[in-house]
Amino acid sequence: MNTIILAIALISGYLYVTRSVSARYIFKRSEGWDAYFYVAAWGVLFTLIAWLFCSALSMLGLFRWAYNFAVAHDFLEADSIKRVFPLSPSDQFKFGDLKFAVFGVLSMFFAWACGKLVKWYTCSSEDRRIDALVKAVHHDSLESLLIEGAVRKFPIIITLSSRKFYVGIVNCPQFEHGKAEYLELLPLLSGYRDEKTLTINVTTNYKRHYIDSGIVGGVNAGPISLSDFRTLIPKDGIEGISFFDTDTYSKFKEKEEQDKQGSKALGPTFMPKPDGRQGVNF
Q1: DSSP assignment letter at 171
Q2: Omega within 30 of 0 (cis) for the link into 86
Q3: Mean of the pLDDT values across residues 27-41?
Q4: N or C: which end of the chain has fewer CB within 10 A?
Q5: Per-residue pLDDT tens for 123-162?
């Protein structure tokens, strides 16, 4: 019997965490015993709820009344029930077996229904879905940055191990389904980093192409749309990700040579002081 209760708890927990957005995110990233205990924790919650519900029905006498009513009105046949039950090794039908079966079914039903309800509420609004993911990924700096960039529609720059880079708008990945191997990006700029200085050199301006071709604003009546330019970037090849502001980049680029010359004048005075404070003298 204890084994059956454990199985009910695990199944109930699994039914919930595979349907709730934030719970599925955490479950997909759990490994080993962490995943088992996470599922079991939710399962125990729903088995307790089902136990309390069934206990209330039993104390009110509704279990016995519903059984007698179903048998009296031919909704159930006593002989059929005897062939299905008992769950215990006894050959005699025990009413407790029926209540235990109802308890197990209700536990799994509550878990499934609650997971569906949470999923419907969360996914009925994109803001709520994103908010649920943001709360779930607060401990992961990379995925927090990607979700923030997707929500704000703020460009990010991705540098690959090949020194190629992309600047674009990240499409919010379905993190709740597990860790994606690829990052989807709508490119705005691309190019490469200098081999020695690692400064970026833009070779392709996608944004200008979108505007000149009339893709932005719906002027172009052709079959090509913005979604046709989305790019999948393998996460394994990414070396760095950060936000990218085009105005700030332009200002830095204008003063790049001046900054290089100025950096040569930095001497021993630009060093931490013994007390740990930054010492800067010009």
Answers
A1: P
A2: yes
A3: 83
A4: C
A5: 777 677 777 776 666 667 777 788 778 777 889 999 998 8
Q: How far apart are CA 173 and CA 146, in angstroms?
A: 8
* Contact predicate 237/143, CB 8 Å: no
State the CB neighbour count (10 A cutoff) for residue 15: 24
Q: Exposed/middle/buried for 176, CB within 10 Å: 0-12, 13-18, 19+?
A: buried
pLDDT in tens, 78-129: 666 666 555 555 555 566 667 788 888 899 999 999 988 988 887 777 677 7
- Pair of tokens at residue 275: 């007390």
Q: What token pair was written down for 279? A: 């010492």
What are the domain boundaries of the chain? Answer: 2-128, 139-248
How far apart, in whole angstroms, are the C-alpha atoms of residue 166 and residue 159? 7
Q: In sequence order, what are the residues at sequence separation of 6 or more whose Cβ sits closer than 8 angstroms to the Cβ of residue 81? A: 93, 98
Q: Which CATH architecture has domain 139-248?
A: Roll (2.30)
Tokens representing residue 75 in the block:
């909704």
Separation in Å, CA 249 to CA 151, 245, 278: 22, 6, 26
